[in-house]
């Protein structure tokens, strides 16, 4: 968990622990893992209330595994449930961590961020092509065959951008 928390913090995320455990245990974990904030002695029904308070200033991603996390999983903007957790927690979460490895949360964030970047680049490229090359060809300034070649190159660039997901470096267990 230490490596995952460190990576999340490096990525700019603020980390919380919301637990039903005693405050002494929560503070120990906060110190050991470098968590930004902890909430201890929290009843399962109150986890969602705490998330709602946090949502006044931040978006919340919640990782849970049990029946006691269901309301919090539902309240969070994005939620992950462990595959080893309860069926109901898996049914209400946005993502299920099949391998029960917290590193998968970081991997999912990387994939999502890369997908957003790729979508933006592809959209910009497509709009620029349609605003520049297509009208020039329509006006007869360039030959239609040149426009067709540019369209082919444009399509190849879009497909090439999609292949970036094959090269996203993800940490895996060895």
SSE arrangement:
Layout: H1 2-10, E1 16-18, H2 23-33, E2 37-39, H3 44-54, E3 61-64, H4 70-75, E4 78-82, H5 87-92, E5 95-97, H6 103-138, H7 144-162
Parallel strand pairs: 1-2, 3-4, 4-5
Brief descriptors of the model:
174 residues; elongated; 7 helices; mainly alpha
**Unreliable runs:** none
Give Rg in angstroms.
23 Å
Regarding quaternary structure, what we see is: single chain
Distance between the termini: 16 Å
Derived from helix and strand composition plus strand pairing, the structural class reads: mainly alpha
What form results from the Cα inertia axes?
A: elongated
Largest sheet: 3 strands, parallel
The DSSP helix count reads 7
Strand content: 5-15%
Number of DSSP E strands: 5
Largest sheet strand order: 3-4-5
Mean pLDDT: 89
Percent of residues in helices comes to 55-70%
Helix and strand string, N-terminal first?
Answer: HEHEHEHEHEHH
Could you explain the architecture of this structure?
The chain has 174 residues and is mainly alpha-helical. It is 56% helix and 10% strand. It is built from seven helices and five strands, in the order αβαβαβαβαβαα. Helix 5 links the parallel strand 4 and strand 5. Helix 6 (103-138) packs antiparallel against helix 7 (144-162). It starts with a helix and ends in a 12-residue tail after the last helix. The model has no long low-confidence stretch (mean pLDDT 89).
